[in-house]
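User: Is it possible to get a 3D structure for a protein together with its bound compound? The compound here is JFB. I've pasted both below.
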Amino acid sequence: MRVDIISIFPEYFAPLDVSLMGKARERGILDIHLHQLRDWTHDVHKTVDDTPYGGGPGMVMKPEVWGEAVDAVIEDGRAASGGDALPRLIVPTPSGRPFTQEVALEYAEEPWLLFAPARYEGIDSRVVAEYGERLRTDEVSIGDYVLAGGEAAVLVMVEAVGRLLPGVLGNARSVADDSFAPGDMANLLEGPVYTKPPVWRGHEVPEVLLSGHHGRIARWRRDEALRRTLDRRPELVARLDRDGLDKHDRRVIEEFEERLEERRSAAASRPGFRAAPEDVAD
Ligand code: JFB
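Assistant: Yes, that's possible. Here is the predicted structure of the complex:
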C-alpha cells in the first residue's frame, strides 16, 4: 500500500519508522511518502493560513496551497505506478464521520491513501468540495475530543490500517481475534491477559488458565469479555447480535444486571441519595 501524507509538520510522523510500522516499511508492505505542505507556497514567508471569512477566532488554511500540493502528489503517485490510479483522500476533522475498525478494514483494501492533516481551524471547505468531485474523499474523526491538528489522527489511522495489511502481523496473532473484528468475539472488549509468574505480589493468575482445559478456557475468556463489556461499554452489548448470544452468555448478562440492581437499590437506601435526573419523572 502506498500512503502519502501532506502536512506542515512532516517530522510529526517519525513514530512510523518504529516497531510494527517500521518493519512493514522495511518489508515494502507499507510505502509511506511524507510531504511538506509549505513546499507548494510561493511567498517568502511560506504562508499556509489566512483569516476566516465572516470573522471569528483562529486562522483557516488557504485552498490554493492545498490544491497545488494534492495535484502534485497525485501526479507523482501516478507516475510511480505508471497507471491511471487515484488515491482515496482522507481529511481528519473533528466534524468527520467516525473512524472505526470497519473503516480501517475498508482502507486496508485500498492500494493508495492520501492523508491531508490540517492545523489551525482546518482547511478552506472548497478543497474537500473540489476533490470530492475527483477522488473518493472522506472527512473522518478519530473520536469525540478536540485535537490541535490532524497529524495525531493520521498516526492513529495509519497504524490501525497498517497492522491489517497482509504480512504485517505474524501468524501468531490474527486480526480476527480483535475486539471490534467481525466474528465470534464481535463487539466484545478483550478480557484480561496474564503471563508468568503464576503469583505476583500475591495476585494469582485465574486457575482455569493453568488448567490446560481448552474448552473451559475459551468459555471463561468469553465470559470475562462479556462482563468487561457490560461494565465499560454497555451500549456494545445492546448492539450484540441477539442470535450471537448463547444460553450461557444470557446467564452472564442476567447475573451482571442483578449485581447492578443490587448496587443501585443499596445506594438508593443510603442517606443523602439523589436519583439521576433521567430516573425522575417530569
Ligand atoms: C482534526 C483539528 C481544530 C477545529 C479544528 C485540524 N477527533 C478529532 N479531534 N480533533 C480532530 C480530530 C480528528 N480526526 C482534528 C484535524 C484538525 C482537529 N484541528 C484543530 C480544533 C477545533 N475545531 C485542525
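Residues 51 and 218 are 58 Å apart (CA to CA). Residues 92-94, 96, 118-119, 121-122, 141-143, 145-150, 153 surround JFB (CB under 6 Å).
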